Every structure is written in C-alpha cells, then in structure tokens.
Amino acid sequence: MTEKLKQNRAATAAAPLQILLCAAASRAAANVLAKAAGGRAQIGPFSPSAVEEAVAKGQQCVVLWPDLASALARRNGAEPAEVLERWKQAVGSLLDVFRRHRAAIVLVEADLVESGGEAAAALKERLALRADLEPEPEAIGTGHTDDLSFAIATLYMNLPGNLADLVEELRASSYARAARPSSLVDLDEAARLVARAGTERELLRNQVALLQEALDTTEHQHARALAAEKAAERALSDLRAESKRRASLESELKKARATAGRPGQRDKELKDARDMLARITRDNTAMLATISAQAALKADADTARKRYDRLQKTFSWRITAPMRATARLFRAKKA
Fold first, then answer.
1. Which of 50-54, 160-164, 235-239 has the highest mean pLDDT?
2. Which has more pLDDT, 14 or 108?
3. pTM score, two decimals?
4. Using CA atoms, how far apart are residues 108 and 33, in angstroms rounded to an integer?
5. Crossing angle of helices 163-172/147-157, nearest 10°?
6. Which residues are registered as beta bridge partners of 21?
7. What is each CA distance from 146 to 34, 182, 199, 210, 270, in whole angstroms?
8. Cβ distance 177 to 109 under 8 Å?
9. Roughly what angle, to the nearest 10 degrees, separates helices 147-157 and 80-100?
C-alpha cells in the first residue's frame, strides 16, 4: 500500500459520515452502518438539498435505498401502485443527484447490511469502516421480502416503461446484493399469486365491514346510555330539591297545627297542606320510576362498553386497523 493511499484511507476514516435514507429505507440498516463507522456518522432522510449540503461540507455521503420488493413488503396497507409511484420518484431524484456528484456519494442497497458477502466487504473497504456490518439480532430478516411482494415487483418490472432501466442503473451504481432469482415459474404464476392475494384482501375487507358495523352499533348504544345516565343524574337532583320542599312544607304544617286560630281556617290550611304533600308524593313516585329506568339503561351501557372493549382486543381488530383507517378516509372524502 503506497503512502498516498494510506493517507487517503486515514482521511476517509476520519471524515464525518452522513447516512441518508431514501424511499423509506430501513432505519435498522442505517443503525448498523453507523455502528460500524464507530460513532462518526449522522442519520437523516434523503433529499437533494441534504446531499448538496453534505457535499459542500466535504462529508462522506451514503444513501441507503430499498429495492422495490422490500418497499412493497413494508407498504403498511398502501396500494402497490401508490408505493411504486413514490419509489420511482424517490429513486429518480436520487439518481439525478448521483449523476452530478458521483465521486462524493456512495449508494447502498439497504438490505445489503444483513446479507454479507463480497459487496459488504467492499463497502467496508470503501468507507473505511472500523467494524464489520453486523445487524442486531432483532433486525435479522427484516429486509427479506415475501413471495407476494416479489411477485408484484416482478410484474411491475415487466410492464412497458422505463422501470427496468431505472433499476438497472441504480443497481449498477450501488453496493447491492446479487439480484434475487425468481422462484416463480413465469409471469403467469406471479399474476395468479397477486390475484389470489386480491381475493383474500376482499374477504378481509368484508370482515372489516362487519366489525365496523358492530362497532357503530356499540358506539350508538354507548351514546344512548351516556345520555340516559345524564338524565338520571338530573332526575336525582330534582328529587333532592323536591325532598327539601317537602321538608319545608312539613315544617309549615307543624307550625300551622301549633298556631291557634279559628277551627275552620285551621282545618282548611291542614287540608291544603295534606293535598300538597299528596301531590309531592305522587311526583316523587314518578321520579323514582324514572330513575329506575335510567339505571337499567346505564346497565345496558356498561354491557355495551364491555363488548366494545373485548372487540378491540381481538386479533381480527388489530390486523384490520389499517383498513378501517382507509375506510374512514374514503368516507371523509365522500362527505
């Protein structure tokens, strides 16, 4: 190794390392790369301005990108066409910047960090990393794609357009894994796999609709029960006020009995007081019946709430959360 090469390697090893994530690349991959760099790395999202800033500062700039199948595997409920469009835009922007600053930018397929091999060794040499690329145990396998995502990516790659050329240029410019060989017999098998997944998704949507209907019913019952509970509280308050009035009338009745006066006048006052007490008694009886009915409604509300809580704890409820969110979004747009 010549003295000049040693000096270049030493300068590279000492230079700050800017790691940028493109097209939702794995954060775990960036963490592995930063760890191997020995604490001289910073991680952030990719943008052309971020690259230009890193180049202007003289920093090493590494951009991690996911292949299309990996991006589809992590789509989190988004439609494949939407994921493809976002991926194409991000990768196209990345290649535009790379063509202007080839010497200052290193492109790396994010899944390379857990595949090892000659490409990973060459990357370590290129960046003068202080340690090998060793993914955390919990990150092992997170970059692997399922057959469905690979099938969708295979179909997109064979559609008319410039996607295949874009991917070829990206891989040729990057430290990347060897292209995954297709485990499918042909494109027809890929199409059948995608079609079967679509049927399963439709069944899942139907299940979501049923769960949403049950949830709406439970929420309606809960709202009615809350209204009934408030009405019961108001009735109880009125009953307490009536009780105070009754106590006041009884006190006045006692005073009337103790007051001397004409027998006829006293009897009339006593009769009026008894009539008022009778009316209050009837009102109180009706109010107690109302409170009893409200208590029954509150019990129904508690039952509905328990059903609602059990529903939210089910496995079906958890796995269909993204689809419910999508359904609410579509309803909001229609409104």
1. 50-54
2. 108
3. 0.52
4. 10
5. 110
6. 45, 64
7. 27, 12, 17, 28, 90
8. yes
9. 60
How does pLDDT run across 73-131, given as a tens digit for each residue? 777 777 777 888 888 899 999 999 999 999 889 999 888 877 767 888 888 888 888 88
Supply the Cα-derived Rg of the chain in whole angstroms: 37
Least confident of 31-35, 240-244, 273-277, 325-329: 325-329
Q: What is the distance between the alpha carbons of residues 42 and 51, in angstroms, rounded to a whole number?
A: 13
Dist. CA 94–CA 50, nearest whole Å: 11
Using the structure block, give the residue that is written with the tokens 């689809």: 323
Type of residue numbered 54: A
**Contact at 8 Å (CB) between 228 and 297?**
yes
Topology of domain 203-334 in CATH is: Helix Hairpins (1.10.287)
Grouping H, G, I as helix, E, B as strand and the rest as coil, residue 174 is strand
Do residues 133 and 113 touch, judged by C-beta distance below 8 A? yes
Annotated domain spans of the chain: 3-133+146-183, 203-334
Tell the residue number behind the tokens 């270049």, with chain if given. Answer: 8
Single-letter amino acid, residue 309? D
Look up residue 79 and give its two tokens: 């439609």
- Please state the rounded mean pLDDT for residues 198-216: 57
Paired tokens of 32: 């592995």
Give yes or no for a contact between 143 and 70, defined as CB atoms under 8 angstroms apart. Answer: yes
Mean pLDDT across the chain: 75
